[in-house]
């Protein structure tokens, strides 16, 4: 009976056109749109050229001068610095000949003409320099014997023209949108889960009533249908990841199999979440679909689907929420693959997803376990 | 002695203040085609839902095949076929798959199931439509599919809840013939409807329901004997005088006479040769008349007399 229900669930699901649109076609369309919209930005960001910079020395700073020299004399120099008076520097800044003016006084300051990528890199460069300068200053004050070791370490770091990544992953900002796309497909699975719950309850659907008349135990029916839906959802997730990775050439780093795992777990949590929502109360199907879609979209929004900076905002305002928001768990688990060299964070996120899935499933089962109804 | 297949004892079902079933009792024997007749809202579907253990009830008991019916009575459910009021099939599955799906909820043996599904398709005459999806089927064919889904597993008891609603006459006849054939093969049938003609045509025993109560029970003839009217005689006649009408009113067994200048309608209660006596009066008075017909009472009249209201709503 399990296999019978399971196979027919898969067969039925694969023939629901709406489902195929929202779970397969829509992500392909949206993914393509993302690629068109962000692809150009991505290309630009990965090929940042040498930044023309003016330096105004209000007070001589030998250390800074040597650092600037080192950044200007590599094969692919970050800076093309010229030492000017303040007047000349500002004139060039206004004309767009330089992207920023660095003042080396008591404190190193930066003036930029806009907020482009090159200006951001200049800001980052100044910030990094100041952090390192402070480390050395602190070492002088606290333990002068360690100064040579600290300078050696920092010099080695500064002299490296390229940052050594922790992983071979892609930490590009715009790839977050593709992570969110995967999370969105996962959350769309909630609609299929919701239909499972409704289709098994005699008081919510005629099909549920009809099934309840048969000798197939409700628990077997639910488990078989959910398993079937999990399989279909997983296939949709695989298609989504594969399309973005191989057709749109989105760079997921060198851990693609783990991205698939995260996507599949996301699909499972999406279906389970929908099953839970579908099991609550006796609202009409349309109302439940509305609730499910709204909650799913809010989760995706808070994980950064519509606004890329939303997740950091949530991380600051309500850090606990990102740890339980299914959409954020999906994006975080994939991000973790690109940010960390080990699998600790990834594994943690996957475990949380599976625990939440189990929780939604058990709660849903508890709600639909009733076998007789006061009214139909 | 015939076995009791269904026994409902003193069933009470309330929806808040509304009493949907009011101490309702019933006993259905093996091999019967039992009709539950009543207007919309009389409690027929509630009875069926309680019988199937879908609905909880406040009082009473239900036994099927001599065992108490509960939601987990899977051995009993295995022997019951259900055809609900609305067509319940999956839009994503074709005719064959739908029947196979529902049959598979009862029959695990794949080979046996295949045989049963093919027999059910043949039984309802859907051989030419096996690859069709429900949305491509007409209302009548959909009803047939609904029936096939309910009977494919060869149940011993089949419950049909208004299976012919919104069905064309041709499909309706096909459905009714099919039900009779199932019964001839030994299946016990419970048939609910508010179409008295259908109930009269196929049911061996009938319970009339109103406001959640059983107001009468028996065979068609037994029910008809319960009411005063046994025969209605209609005569097409013009220009009848009041004296003739008075003479007809005094005839034995005549209890009501109506005349509208064209048609004389006489209601009789019991007795024999009522028509001969009426025509005798007209001939003696040398009154010429047109068509004459005599009608036996219908279940609608039975219902009307017992409950004081028509069985079907005007719009139906």
Brief digest:
The complex is a heterodimer of chains A (376) and B (316). Chain A has 376 residues and is mostly helical.
Overview of the structural elements:
The complex is a heterodimer of chains A (376) and B (316). By secondary structure, chain A is mainly alpha-helical. Chain A has two domains: 2-41 and 170-368, no CATH class; 49-159, 3-Layer(aba) Sandwich (D-Maltodextrin-Binding Protein, domain 2). Chain A contains 15 helices and four strands. Chain A has helices at 2-13, 17-46, 62-72, 86-95, 117-142, 147-159, 175-200, 206-212, 218-247, 256-279, 285-302, 310-317, 319-324, 326-339, 344-368, and strands at residues 51-56, 79-83, 100-104, 108-112. Chain A has a four-stranded mixed beta sheet with strand order 2-1-3-4, with helices on both faces. In chain A, strand 3 and strand 4 form a beta hairpin. The longest helix of chain A is centred in the N-terminal third of the chain and has 30 residues, at 17-46. Chain A starts with a helix and ends in an 8-residue tail after the last helix. Chain B is α/β, with parallel strands linked by helices and 316 residues long. Chain B has two domains: 4-225, Rossmann fold (3-Layer(aba) Sandwich), CATH 3.40.50.300; 231-296, 2-Layer Sandwich (Alpha-Beta Plaits), CATH 3.30.70.100. Chain B is 34% helix and 28% strand. Chain B has eleven helices and 14 strands. Chain B has helices at 44-51, 74-77, 95-104, 110-124, 139-151, 169-184, 196-202, 220-225, 242-249, 274-284, 299-307; strands at residues 4-15, 18-29, 33-37, 59-64, 67-68, 80-83, 157-161, 188-193, 205-210, 213-218, 231-237, 254-259, 263-268, 289-295. In chain B, the strands form three sheets. In chain B, strands 6-7-8-3-9-10 form a six-stranded mixed beta sheet, with helices on both faces. In chain B, 40% of the residues are buried. The interface between A and B is medium-sized, with 27 and 28 residues.
């Amino acid at each position: 009976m399990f296999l019978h229900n399971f196979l027919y669930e898969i067969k039925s699901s694969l023939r629901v056109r709406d489902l195929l649109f929202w779970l397969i076609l829509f992500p392909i369309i949206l993914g393509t749109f993302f690629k068109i919209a962000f692809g150009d930005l991505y290309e630009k960001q990965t090929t940042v050229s040498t930044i023309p910079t003016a330096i105004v020395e209000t007070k001589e700073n030998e250390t800074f001068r040597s650092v600037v020299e080192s950044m200007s004399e590599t094969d692919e120099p970050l800076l093309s610095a010229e030492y000017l008076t303040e007047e000349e520097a500002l004139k060039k800044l206004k004309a767009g000949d330089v992207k920023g003016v660095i003042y080396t006084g008591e404190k190193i300051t930066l003036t930029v003409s806009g907020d482009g990528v090159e200006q951001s890199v200049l800001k980052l460069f100044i910030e990094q320099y100041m952090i390192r300068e402070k480390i050395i200053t602190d070492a002088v004050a606290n333990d002068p014997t360690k100064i040579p070791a600290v300078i050696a370490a920092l010099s080695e770091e500064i002299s490296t023209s390229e940052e050594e990544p922790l992983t071979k992953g892609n930490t590009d900002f715009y790839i977050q949108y593709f992570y969110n796309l995967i999370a969105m497909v996962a959350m769309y699975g909630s609609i299929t889960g919701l239909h499972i719950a409704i289709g098994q309850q005699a008081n919510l659907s005629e099909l549920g009533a009809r099934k309840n008349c048969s000798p197939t135990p409700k628990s077997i029916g639910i488990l078989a249908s959910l398993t079937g839906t999990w399989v279909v959802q997983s296939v949709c997730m695989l298609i989504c990841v594969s399309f973005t990775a191989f057709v749109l050439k989105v760079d997921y780093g060198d851990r693609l199999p783990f991205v698939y795992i995260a996507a599949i777990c996301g699909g499972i949590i999406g279906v389970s979440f929908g099953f839970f929502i579908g099991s609550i109360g006796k609202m009409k199907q349309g109302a439940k679909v509305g609730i499910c879609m709204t909650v799913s979209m809010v989760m995706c929004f808070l994980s950064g689907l519509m606004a890329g900076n939303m997740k950091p905002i949530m991380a600051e305002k309500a850090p606990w929420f990102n740890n339980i928001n299914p959409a954020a768990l999906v994006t975080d688990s994939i991000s973790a693959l690109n940010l960390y060299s080990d699998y600790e964070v990834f594994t943690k996120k996957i475990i949380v997803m599976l625990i939440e899935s189990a929780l939604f499933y058990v709660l849903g089962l508890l709600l639909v376990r009733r076998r007789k109804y006061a009214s139909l | 002695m015939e076995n009791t297949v269904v026994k409902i004892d003193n069933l009470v079902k309330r929806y808040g203040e509304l009493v949907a079933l009011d101490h309702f009792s019933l006993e259905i024997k093996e091999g019967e085609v039992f009709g539950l007749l009543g207007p919309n809202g009389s409690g027929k579907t509630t009875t069926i839902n309680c019988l199937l253990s879908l609905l909880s009830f406040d009082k009473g008991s239900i036994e099927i095949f001599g065992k108490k019916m509960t939601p987990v009575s899977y051995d009993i459910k295995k022997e019951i076929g259900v055809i609900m009021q609305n067509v319940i099939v999956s839009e994503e599955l074709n005719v064959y798959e739908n029947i196979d799906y529902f049959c598979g909820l009862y029959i695990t043996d794949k080979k046996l199931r295949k045989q049963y599904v093919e027999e059910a398709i043949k039984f309802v005459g859907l051989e030419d439509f096996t690859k069709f999806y429900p949305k491509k089927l007409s209302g009548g064919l959909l009803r047939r599919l609904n029936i096939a889904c309910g009977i494919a597993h060869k149940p011993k008891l089949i419950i049909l809840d208004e299976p012919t609603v919104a069905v064309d006459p041709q499909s309706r006849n096909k459905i009714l013939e099919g039900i009779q054939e199932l019964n001839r093969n030994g299946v016990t049938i419970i048939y609910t409807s508010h179409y008295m003609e259908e109930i009269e045509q196929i049911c061996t025993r009938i319970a009339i329901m109103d406001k959640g109560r059983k107001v009468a029970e028996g065979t068609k003839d037994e029910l008809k004997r319960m009411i005063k009217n046994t025969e209605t005689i209609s005569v097409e006649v013009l220009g009848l005088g009041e004296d003739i009408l008075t003479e007809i009113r005094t005839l034995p067994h005549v209890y009501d006479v109506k005349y509208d200048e064209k048609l004389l309608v006489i209601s009789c209660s019991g007795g024999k040769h009522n028509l001969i006596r009426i025509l005798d009066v007209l001939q003696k008075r040398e009154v010429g008349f047109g068509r004459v017909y005599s009608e036996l009472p219908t279940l609608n009249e039975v219902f009307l007399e017992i409950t004081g209201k028509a069985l079907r709503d005007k719009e139906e």
